[in-house]
Amino acid sequence: MKRITRLWRGLRALVRRRRVQLALSIRVTIAALASLALAQFLQLPLPLWAVLTAVIVTQMSVGRSLKATFDYLVGTVGGAIYGGAIGVFVPHSSEIALLAALAIAVAPLALIAAINPRFSVAPITAIIVLLIPTMTHATPIASAVDRLLEVALGGVTGLVVSFFLLPSNAHSLVVAAAARTLDRMARALGELLAGLTQGLDVDALHRIQDGIGQALVQLNVVGAEAERERSARLVVVPDTGPLLRTLLRLRHDLVMIGRAASNPLPEAVMTRLEAPLAQAGAALADYLRASGAALKAGRGPPSRHAVESALDAYAAEIAALRRDGVTRSLPGDAAERFFALGFALEQMHDNVKDLERCVAEWAAPSREKGRNNSQSD
After folding, report:
1. C-beta atoms surrounding 198 within 10 Å
2. Which residues of 100-110 are buried (b: 16+ CB within 10 A; e: fewer)?
3. Do 284 and 302 form a contact (C-beta atoms < 8 A)?
4. Distance CA 254, CA 209 (A)
5. In this predicted model, what pLDDT tens digit does every residue of 182-218 receive, in sequence order?
6. Are 367 and 298 a contacting pair, CB within 8 Å?
7. Fold exhibited by the domain 170-365
8. How many helices (H) and strands (E) would you count in the chain?
9. What are 124-157's pLDDT values in tens digits?
10. Residue closest to 362 by CA, chosen among 247, 240, 244
11. Nearest to 263, CA basis, from 320, 204, 319, 313
12. Helix axis angle, 332-376 relative to 267-297, nearest 10°?
């Protein structure tokens, strides 16, 4: 009995952890089945293309499905028109003539697709429109029309399923990605500040910074999808731009701290700075993590009191070091890294304030939704 209970709990935890991916698999399956049933009901010549199109355009979020559908339809229309024209106006009754017509059909579209990925499906469409008549004895125009109908049916089916069956808005993906990025930044801050006493080798520095860079790239992708949904008025959510720009500036702050931590600071400086710097780093890291948790929960921003107190203590110790003349005796390279560290922490302080405003703005829709639910009850 205990084993069954543990298995059930593990299964529930897996479902909660992978609910977005599970919802996508369900949507893709339903889109494929629905498109096949509709294609057979409408007696389309090749239901295969309707099914493939439905699977291709059913994406992780509604915004990504919108883009995939639009791009696929644009590429299909272009490829069908051009392939149909080649089939009508370029004779290809012999094998050599067919090879020549195929080259004329594919080469320009492949070049266009290389320049603009939106047309990546155009060469495939042109090939189908040109070659299918040789197997089915249909005309090139009929082949082009059939291809458009099949793709239109698959695209519309996939889009409708994405909208109405377990829809996943990019807004929630942005929140989750931003929270992961903030958590990664918090871990990186601790590692980078530790380098001020121990030093950081180049490989470790690149590993830390590359990880944050990859997280920001993923965030920018889902941010573009969220903006597409917002522009289409599918959701009422804040502009993703300020949040993405704030996280990018925080990443720049970490880059500056990483450069300062490439070598340990002199012992005379670190003896007095180690404690206040550790407190400032811990307070900033805790604030980044708490901000990520607030974003995911739709709450207001956490208090900055600990951050302000820690940075004030650090600034006071810096002022004392300068009064005592310790900074004047630093070698040139050490002095440069010392002041770069101070500048980076000042910038991070300002950017944390911007992060607070972003978290408050992203919490507003959740509070409004909660008020509406309370009024309806």
Report:
1. 9
2. ebbebbbeebe
3. no
4. 8
5. 999 999 998 888 877 777 777 777 888 888 989 999 8
6. yes
7. Methane Monooxygenase Hydroxylase; Chain G, domain 1 (1.20.58)
8. 13, 0
9. 999 988 888 877 777 888 888 988 999 999 999 9
10. 240
11. 204
12. 20
| Interatomic CA distance for residues 299 and 367, integer angstroms | 8
Secondary structure letter of residue 330 according to DSSP = S
Do 215 and 180 contact (CB within 8 A), yes or no? yes
Average pLDDT taken over every residue of the chain: 86
Report d(CA 185, CA 256) in Å as an integer.
Answer: 13
Of the candidates 254, 274, 252, the one whose C-alpha atom is nearest the C-alpha of residue 264 is 274
Residue 110: which residues within 8 A CB-CB, separation 6 or more? 123
The C-alpha angle 185, 188, 191, rounded to 5 degrees, equals: 160
Q: Which two tokens stand for residue 215?
A: 């997280």
Domain segments of the chain: what residues?
A: 21-164, 170-365
Residues 6 or more apart in contact with residue 189 via CB below 8 angstroms: 254, 257, 281, 284, 285, 288
CB-count burial class (<10 Å; 0-12, 13-18, 19+) for 360 = middle
Measured CA distances, 300 to 235, 241, 285, 290, 294 (Å): 20, 19, 18, 10, 6
Q: What's the predicted TM-score (pTM) here?
A: 0.74
The single-letter code of the amino acid at 249 is R
Whole-angstrom distance, CA of residue 126 vs CA of residue 110: 10
Degrees, nearest 5: CA angle 10-184-343: 165
DSSP string, 42-105: TT-S-HHHHHHHHHHH--SSHHHHHHHHHHHHHHHHHHHHHHHHHHHHS---SHHHHHHHHHHH
